[in-house]
Amino acid sequence: MSKSLFIEQLKQLFKNQIYITRNELFDFYRTFDPQLKDSTFTWRIFYAYIK
């Protein structure tokens, strides 16, 4: 998996939603990395939040 957070793809997929659940976001990232661990996913959320 690249270090990209796939921001543009996220925007496109969820453009009509006000909220995105953690499960929806996790499922999104699992499409790019089926072996994604929950801990790695948590770090991605943290990184996106502080950025």
Helix content class: 55-70%
Contiguous helical run count: 3
How much of the sequence lies in strands comes to: under 5%
Mean pLDDT: 87
Report the structural category.
mainly alpha
Along the chain, the helix and strand elements come as HHH
Radius of gyration: 11 Å
Shape: globular
Major sheet size, sense and barrel closure: none
Distance from N terminus to C terminus (CA atoms, Å) equals 19 Å
- Residue stretches low in confidence (pLDDT < 50, at least 5 long) are none
Give the oligomer, counting copies of the same chain as homo and different chains as hetero: single chain
Strand tally: 0
Structural overview:
The structure is a single chain. The protein has helices at residues 7-13, 22-32, 38-50. The chain is globular. Helices cover 61% and strands 0% of the residues. By secondary structure, it is an all-alpha fold. It has a domain at 19-50. The mean pLDDT is 87. It has 3 helices and no strands. The two termini are 19 Å apart.
Write the layout of secondary structure elements.
Layout: H1 7-13, H2 22-32, H3 38-50
Please give a quick description of this structure.
With 51 residues, this protein is mainly alpha-helical.
Notable traits:
mainly alpha; 0% strand
